[in-house]
C-alpha cells in the first residue's frame, strides 16, 4: 500500500482537473511525506472508521488535520512550527531554557537544519524583566544552554505600553510575580483599557492576551484569585478568556496556585 500510494495514487492526485487547472498548478510541487508504511496503515485505519457519506464530516476531518499540521511531532512530523515564545517576567529564564532543552530532546532537527537552527538561536526566545541582576543571570543561563542570541531584555511589562510587542508571539510561558498591586499612574494605559484594576494578577493576564498572535497558546501559573475572585475586574477577565479567547479549561495543581491553559 505504501508503494502504491507513493508512486501511483499521489501522482494521480497531483493532476486532478487537468494540467492547467488551478488545483493541478498548486499541487505540482506537493510530495507524499508520510514517512513509514506503519504510519500510513494507522492513518488509513482511523479514516476508514469514520463515516464519509456526509460532506460536512469530510470537511471537519480536513480542518482537524490542518490544525494538527501546525503542531510538530503529530502524525509523523509533517512540519516544524515557527513558534516565537516569550516570558514577560523571565527572571533567570527558566521557561526559555526548558523550551530549548525540550526541542533538543524531542526535535533535534532544529539544530541540524540550518534555517531552523538560525531561528532557534536568533528568533525563538524572548524574555523581559525589570531586575537587571536577573537579566544578567538569565542571559548567561541561555548561553550556557546553547542559545547563541536570545532576546533577553529590560522591560517593566506592566508599566510600559507594549505596542511594538502586540500580536508578536505564538507562545507565552510565564510564572510572573503576582503579589501586590500597582498604582494606576504607573500602569500601562492600554492594559487598563482591557481590565481596569490595580491587581497584578489580572494585569499580567491582560498583557498575555495582547502579546499573543491570533491562534497563539499560553501556559501560565496564576493565583486562585484569577479563577475565583468576585470583583467586577475578575469576572470581566474570566468572561474575556472564555468568550473571546476560548480559554475553556484550567487545572489546579497545588494549594493556592493554579495553571491556566487553553482547552
Task: Explain what you see.
The chain is of the alpha/beta class and 263 residues long. The protein has a domain at 85-261: Rossmann fold, CATH 3.40.50. The chain has helices at 2-14, 22-27, 37-48, 55-69, 94-106, 109-112, 114-122, 132-144, 189-194, 200-211, 224-228, 232-244, and strands at 85-87, 125-129, 151-154, 169-174, 212-223, 249-254, 257-261. A seven-stranded mixed β-sheet has the order 3-2-1-4-5-7-6. The model is unreliable at 72-80 and 252-258 (pLDDT under 50).
SSE order and pairing:
Layout: H1 2-14, H2 22-27, H3 37-48, H4 55-69, E1 85-87, H5 94-106, H6 109-112, H7 114-122, E2 125-129, H8 132-144, E3 151-154, E4 169-174, H9 189-194, H10 200-211, E5 212-223, H11 224-228, H12 232-244, E6 249-254, E7 257-261
Parallel strand pairs: 1-2, 1-4, 2-3, 4-5
Antiparallel strand pairs: 5-7, 6-7
Biggest sheet layout: 7 strands, mixed
The CATH class of one domain: Alpha Beta
Task: Count the DSSP helices.
Answer: 12
Gap between N and C termini: 36 Å
Poorly predicted runs are 72-80, 252-258
What is the fold-level CATH name, i.e. the topology of one domain? Rossmann fold
Q: Widest sheet: strand order? A: 3-2-1-4-5-7-6
Name the CATH superfamily classification of one domain: Vaccinia Virus protein VP39
What portion of residues belong to β-strands?
Answer: 15-25%
CATH hierarchy: architecture of one domain: 3-Layer(aba) Sandwich
Order of helices and strands: HHHHEHHHEHEEHHEHHEE
How much helix, percentage-wise, in residues?
40-55%
Give the beta-strand count: 7
Rounded average pLDDT: 78
Class by alpha and beta content = alpha/beta
Rg measurement, Å: 23 Å
Overall spatial form: globular
Amino acid at each position: 500500500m505504501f508503494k502504491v500510494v507513493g508512486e501511483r495514487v499521489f501522482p494521480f492526485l497531483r493532476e486532478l482537473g487537468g494540467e492547467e487547472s488551478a488545483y493541478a498548478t498548486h499541487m505540482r510541487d506537493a510530495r507524499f511525506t508520510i514517512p513509514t508504511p506503519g504510519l500510513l496503515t494507522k492513518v488509513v485505519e482511523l479514516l476508514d472508521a469514520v463515516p464519509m457519506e456526509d460532506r460536512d464530516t469530510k470537511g471537519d476531518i480536513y480542518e482537524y488535520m490542518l490544525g494538527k499540521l501546525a503542531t510538530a511531532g503529530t502524525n509523523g512530523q509533517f512540519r516544524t512550527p515557527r513558534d516565537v515564545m516569550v516570558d514577560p517576567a523571565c527572571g533567570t529564564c527558566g521557561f526559555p531554557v526548558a523550551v530549548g532543552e525540550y526541542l533538543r530532546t524531542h526535535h533535534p532537527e532544529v539544530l541540524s537544519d540550518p534555517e531552523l537552527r538560525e531561528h532557534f538561536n536568533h528568533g525563538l526566545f524572548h524574555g523581559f524583566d525589570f531586575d537587571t541582576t536577573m537579566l544578567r543571570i538569565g542571559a548567561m543561563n541561555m548561553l550556557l544552554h546553547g542559545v547563541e542570541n536570545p532576546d533577553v531584555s529590560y522591560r517593566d511589562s506592566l508599566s510600559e505600553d507594549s505596542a511594538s510587542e502586540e500580536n508578536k508571539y505564538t507562545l507565552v510561558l510565564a510564572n510572573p510575580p503576582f503579589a501586590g498591586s500597582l498604582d494606576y499612574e504607573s500602569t500601562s494605559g492600554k492594559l487598563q483599557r482591557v481590565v481596569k484594576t490595580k491587581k497584578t494578577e489580572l494585569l499580567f493576564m491582560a498583557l498575555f492576551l495582547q502579546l499573543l498572535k491570533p491562534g497563539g497558546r499560553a501556559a501560565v501559573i496564576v493565583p486562585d484569585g484569577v479563577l475565583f475572585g468576585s470583583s467586577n475586574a475578575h469576572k470581566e477577565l474570566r468572561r474575556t478568556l472564555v468568550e473571546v479567547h476560548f480559554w475553556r479549561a484550567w487545572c489546579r495543581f497545588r494549594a493556592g496556585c493554579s495553571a491556566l491553559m487553553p482547552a
